Amino acid sequence: MEFSWSTIGWIAGLLFVYIFGLVEGRSKGYKKRKAEEEQEKKTQPPPQPETVTVTVDDPGILRIKNENGAFALDLDGNRVNPISLLPEQRKRLIEVLNIMRPWLEGKPVSTPPMPTQAPSFQPQPSATIQTQSKPAAAPQTSAPKPATIPMEDRPAAPANSIVTQIDTILQTRLIGTPLEERGIFLTQSSDGGVIVYVGLTRYNGVDEVPDPEIKAAIRGAIAEWENKYTPGL
Fold first, then answer.
1. φ, ψ (nearest 5 deg) of residue 203
2. If 163 and its partner were Cys, which of 48, 144, 157, 170 is the partner (CB 3.0–4.6 Å)?
Protein backbone atom coordinates (compact mmCIF):
# COMPACT_ATOMS: atom_id res chain seq x y z
CA MET A 1 0.00 0.00 0.00
CA GLU A 2 1.42 3.28 -0.96
CA PHE A 3 0.82 6.49 0.92
CA SER A 4 1.09 9.87 -0.60
CA TRP A 5 3.36 12.45 0.96
CA SER A 6 0.38 14.62 1.77
CA THR A 7 -1.15 11.87 3.90
CA ILE A 8 2.13 11.34 5.71
CA GLY A 9 2.38 15.10 6.31
CA TRP A 10 -1.14 15.18 7.80
CA ILE A 11 -0.34 12.32 10.11
CA ALA A 12 2.93 13.94 11.22
CA GLY A 13 1.14 17.23 11.86
CA LEU A 14 -1.53 15.57 13.98
CA LEU A 15 1.13 13.79 16.02
CA PHE A 16 2.99 17.06 16.56
CA VAL A 17 -0.18 18.86 17.71
CA TYR A 18 -1.04 15.99 20.11
CA ILE A 19 2.42 15.84 21.63
CA PHE A 20 2.61 19.65 21.92
CA GLY A 21 -0.79 19.81 23.65
CA LEU A 22 0.18 17.04 26.06
CA VAL A 23 3.44 18.78 27.03
CA GLU A 24 1.74 22.17 27.32
CA GLY A 25 -1.03 20.72 29.53
CA ARG A 26 1.46 19.13 31.89
CA SER A 27 3.44 22.37 32.04
CA LYS A 28 0.33 24.39 32.94
CA GLY A 29 -0.68 21.81 35.58
CA TYR A 30 2.77 21.96 37.17
CA LYS A 31 2.69 25.75 37.27
CA LYS A 32 -0.81 25.67 38.80
CA ARG A 33 0.29 23.26 41.54
CA LYS A 34 3.33 25.41 42.33
CA ALA A 35 1.12 28.51 42.59
CA GLU A 36 -1.26 26.69 44.93
CA GLU A 37 1.63 25.49 47.13
CA GLU A 38 3.02 29.04 47.38
CA GLN A 39 -0.44 30.34 48.32
CA GLU A 40 -0.77 27.70 51.06
CA LYS A 41 2.63 28.66 52.48
CA LYS A 42 1.51 32.30 52.69
CA THR A 43 -1.78 31.50 54.45
CA GLN A 44 -0.32 29.03 56.97
CA PRO A 45 0.77 30.56 60.34
CA PRO A 46 4.50 30.66 61.04
CA PRO A 47 5.83 27.75 63.11
CA GLN A 48 5.73 28.41 66.83
CA PRO A 49 8.96 27.99 68.83
CA GLU A 50 9.07 24.97 71.07
CA THR A 51 8.10 25.75 74.67
CA VAL A 52 10.61 24.56 77.25
CA THR A 53 9.34 24.13 80.82
CA VAL A 54 11.90 25.17 83.41
CA THR A 55 11.46 23.49 86.78
CA VAL A 56 12.49 25.71 89.71
CA ASP A 57 13.82 23.93 92.78
CA ASP A 58 11.67 24.76 95.81
CA PRO A 59 13.60 23.93 99.00
CA GLY A 60 10.54 24.48 101.21
CA ILE A 61 10.88 25.10 104.96
CA LEU A 62 13.14 22.19 105.93
CA ARG A 63 15.18 19.91 103.68
CA ILE A 64 17.93 17.39 104.41
CA LYS A 65 20.07 16.32 101.42
CA ASN A 66 22.64 13.60 101.00
CA GLU A 67 25.50 15.18 99.07
CA ASN A 68 28.24 12.64 98.33
CA GLY A 69 27.65 10.80 101.59
CA ALA A 70 27.48 13.95 103.78
CA PHE A 71 24.16 15.31 105.04
CA ALA A 72 23.35 18.97 104.37
CA LEU A 73 20.58 21.00 106.05
CA ASP A 74 18.51 23.71 104.32
CA LEU A 75 16.29 25.85 106.58
CA ASP A 76 13.80 28.25 104.95
CA GLY A 77 15.71 27.92 101.68
CA ASN A 78 19.12 28.77 103.18
CA ARG A 79 22.00 26.37 103.79
CA VAL A 80 22.87 26.25 107.52
CA ASN A 81 25.57 24.49 109.52
CA PRO A 82 23.81 22.07 111.91
CA ILE A 83 26.90 21.83 114.08
CA SER A 84 27.05 25.58 114.86
CA LEU A 85 23.51 26.95 114.57
CA LEU A 86 22.88 30.61 115.31
CA PRO A 87 20.38 31.33 118.12
CA GLU A 88 17.67 32.44 115.70
CA GLN A 89 18.33 29.39 113.49
CA ARG A 90 18.04 27.07 116.47
CA LYS A 91 14.79 28.74 117.52
CA ARG A 92 13.39 28.39 113.98
CA LEU A 93 14.43 24.72 113.81
CA ILE A 94 12.63 24.04 117.12
CA GLU A 95 9.48 25.71 115.71
CA VAL A 96 9.60 23.53 112.59
CA LEU A 97 10.11 20.37 114.63
CA ASN A 98 7.18 21.43 116.82
CA ILE A 99 5.00 21.56 113.70
CA MET A 100 6.09 18.02 112.75
CA ARG A 101 5.64 16.56 116.23
CA PRO A 102 1.83 15.97 116.01
CA TRP A 103 2.38 14.05 112.75
CA LEU A 104 4.92 11.77 114.43
CA GLU A 105 2.46 11.15 117.26
CA GLY A 106 -0.44 10.55 114.86
CA LYS A 107 -2.35 13.60 116.07
CA PRO A 108 -4.11 16.22 113.94
CA VAL A 109 -2.83 19.78 113.98
CA SER A 110 -5.58 21.88 115.53
CA THR A 111 -6.05 25.57 114.77
CA PRO A 112 -6.96 27.59 117.86
CA PRO A 113 -10.27 29.45 117.50
CA MET A 114 -10.21 33.20 117.16
CA PRO A 115 -11.61 34.88 120.28
CA THR A 116 -14.51 37.23 119.86
CA GLN A 117 -13.50 40.82 120.49
CA ALA A 118 -15.45 41.99 123.50
CA PRO A 119 -16.57 45.64 123.72
CA SER A 120 -14.26 47.86 125.70
CA PHE A 121 -15.32 48.34 129.28
CA GLN A 122 -16.70 51.81 130.01
CA PRO A 123 -17.53 52.30 133.68
CA GLN A 124 -20.78 54.14 134.21
CA PRO A 125 -20.82 56.89 136.84
CA SER A 126 -22.90 55.85 139.81
CA ALA A 127 -25.80 58.06 140.75
CA THR A 128 -25.44 59.80 144.08
CA ILE A 129 -28.32 60.92 146.27
CA GLN A 130 -27.64 63.98 148.39
CA THR A 131 -29.58 64.49 151.59
CA GLN A 132 -29.44 67.15 154.24
CA SER A 133 -28.16 64.74 156.90
CA LYS A 134 -25.63 62.70 154.80
CA PRO A 135 -23.07 64.13 152.31
CA ALA A 136 -22.67 62.64 148.86
CA ALA A 137 -20.32 59.68 148.60
CA ALA A 138 -16.90 60.47 147.18
CA PRO A 139 -16.24 58.99 143.68
CA GLN A 140 -14.04 55.90 143.56
CA THR A 141 -10.50 56.55 142.37
CA SER A 142 -9.39 52.92 141.85
CA ALA A 143 -8.84 51.93 138.20
CA PRO A 144 -11.27 49.34 136.80
CA LYS A 145 -9.94 45.80 136.31
CA PRO A 146 -8.90 45.26 132.67
CA ALA A 147 -11.07 42.96 130.57
CA THR A 148 -9.47 39.55 130.04
CA ILE A 149 -10.35 36.24 128.40
CA PRO A 150 -11.59 33.73 131.00
CA MET A 151 -9.31 30.77 131.60
CA GLU A 152 -11.84 28.27 130.23
CA ASP A 153 -12.33 30.27 127.00
CA ARG A 154 -8.66 30.74 126.15
CA PRO A 155 -7.44 29.05 122.90
CA ALA A 156 -5.12 26.29 124.01
CA ALA A 157 -2.03 24.95 122.24
CA PRO A 158 -1.40 21.16 122.02
CA ALA A 159 -0.78 19.72 125.47
CA ASN A 160 2.84 18.71 124.89
CA SER A 161 3.88 21.56 122.63
CA ILE A 162 6.78 23.88 123.38
CA VAL A 163 4.40 26.86 123.54
CA THR A 164 2.31 25.14 126.22
CA GLN A 165 5.42 24.35 128.25
CA ILE A 166 6.64 27.95 128.04
CA ASP A 167 3.18 29.30 128.94
CA THR A 168 3.09 27.05 132.03
CA ILE A 169 6.39 28.55 133.18
CA LEU A 170 5.11 32.06 132.38
CA GLN A 171 1.91 31.64 134.44
CA THR A 172 3.99 30.48 137.42
CA ARG A 173 6.31 33.48 137.13
CA LEU A 174 3.37 35.95 136.92
CA ILE A 175 1.81 34.85 140.23
CA GLY A 176 2.05 37.63 142.83
CA THR A 177 3.29 40.24 140.34
CA PRO A 178 1.44 43.35 139.02
CA LEU A 179 1.11 41.55 135.66
CA GLU A 180 -0.98 38.71 137.11
CA GLU A 181 -4.27 40.58 136.53
CA ARG A 182 -3.45 41.57 132.93
CA GLY A 183 -4.65 38.27 131.41
CA ILE A 184 -1.31 37.42 129.77
CA PHE A 185 -0.95 33.98 128.16
CA LEU A 186 0.65 32.25 125.18
CA THR A 187 -0.90 30.01 122.53
CA GLN A 188 0.17 28.53 119.22
CA SER A 189 -0.63 29.58 115.65
CA SER A 190 -1.50 27.13 112.88
CA ASP A 191 2.08 27.26 111.56
CA GLY A 192 3.65 26.57 114.96
CA GLY A 193 4.45 30.19 115.87
CA VAL A 194 3.82 31.93 119.19
CA ILE A 195 0.72 34.11 119.74
CA VAL A 196 0.65 36.42 122.76
CA TYR A 197 -2.59 37.60 124.39
CA VAL A 198 -2.63 40.59 126.74
CA GLY A 199 -6.20 40.90 127.93
CA LEU A 200 -8.30 40.97 124.75
CA THR A 201 -5.43 42.06 122.48
CA ARG A 202 -3.62 39.53 120.29
CA TYR A 203 -0.02 39.89 119.16
CA ASN A 204 1.59 37.67 116.49
CA GLY A 205 4.90 37.13 118.25
CA VAL A 206 6.76 38.39 121.30
CA ASP A 207 8.41 41.26 119.40
CA GLU A 208 4.99 42.84 118.65
CA VAL A 209 4.15 43.30 122.36
CA PRO A 210 4.60 47.05 123.08
CA ASP A 211 4.88 46.76 126.88
CA PRO A 212 8.58 46.16 127.75
CA GLU A 213 7.68 44.70 131.17
CA ILE A 214 5.42 42.05 129.60
CA LYS A 215 7.97 41.33 126.89
CA ALA A 216 10.71 40.85 129.51
CA ALA A 217 8.51 38.43 131.48
CA ILE A 218 7.86 36.29 128.37
CA ARG A 219 11.54 36.24 127.39
CA GLY A 220 12.41 35.21 130.94
CA ALA A 221 10.01 32.25 130.66
CA ILE A 222 11.57 31.29 127.30
CA ALA A 223 15.07 31.42 128.79
CA GLU A 224 13.97 29.25 131.72
CA TRP A 225 12.45 26.71 129.30
CA GLU A 226 15.69 26.59 127.25
CA ASN A 227 17.79 26.02 130.37
CA LYS A 228 15.42 23.25 131.47
CA TYR A 229 14.76 21.37 128.22
CA THR A 230 17.72 22.24 125.97
CA PRO A 231 20.72 22.68 128.26
CA GLY A 232 24.02 23.25 126.53
CA LEU A 233 22.52 24.03 123.09
1. -125, 135
2. 157
Question: Can you name the residues that pair with 186 across neighbouring β-strands?
Answer: 196
Any bridge partners for residue 100, and if so which?
none
How do 201-203 and 194-198 pair as beta strands? antiparallel
* pTM, two decimal places: 0.40
55-63 long-range contacts (CB < 8 A, ≥24 apart) are: 61/96, 62/93, 62/96
- The single-letter DSSP state of residue 152 is G
Measured CA to CA, the distance from residue 137 to residue 176 in angstroms comes to 32
**Structure confidence by residue, pLDDT tens digits, 115-173:** 444 444 444 454 444 444 455 555 555 556 678 788 777 777 777 788 889 989 998 99
